[in-house]
Write a structure and sequence with these properties.
Blueprint: H1 2-9, H2 17-23, H3 26-38, H4 44-50, H5 58-72
Helix pairs in contact: 1-5, 3-5, 4-5
């Protein structure tokens, strides 16, 4: 995942939809993307705290942050 994050941060597009669809339903994906659009930091620890009511695990948030970087940039 670290390599994917580096690739996405550099501006290269990644198609992670197939993996994400297996981990999260569409509503959960939208919730996480909306969070990353509005947050002031990309810290996964803070994201887990802010989204605690949804009980997302670190891996789910990590792959969604990578998707966010790939689609929206930093």
């Amino acid at each position: 995942m670290e390599e994917m994050e580096t690739i996405a941060a550099s501006g290269t597009k990644l198609n992670l939809g197939y993996a994400i669809d297996e981990m999260l339903d569409e509503a959960d994906q939208e919730e996480i993307i909306e969070y990353f659009k509005s947050c002031e930091t990309s810290s996964l620890d803070i994201a887990q705290q802010e989204l605690a009511e949804f009980d997302f695990n670190w891996e789910q948030l990590k792959i969604m942050r990578i998707r966010f970087l790939a689609e929206y940039g930093m």
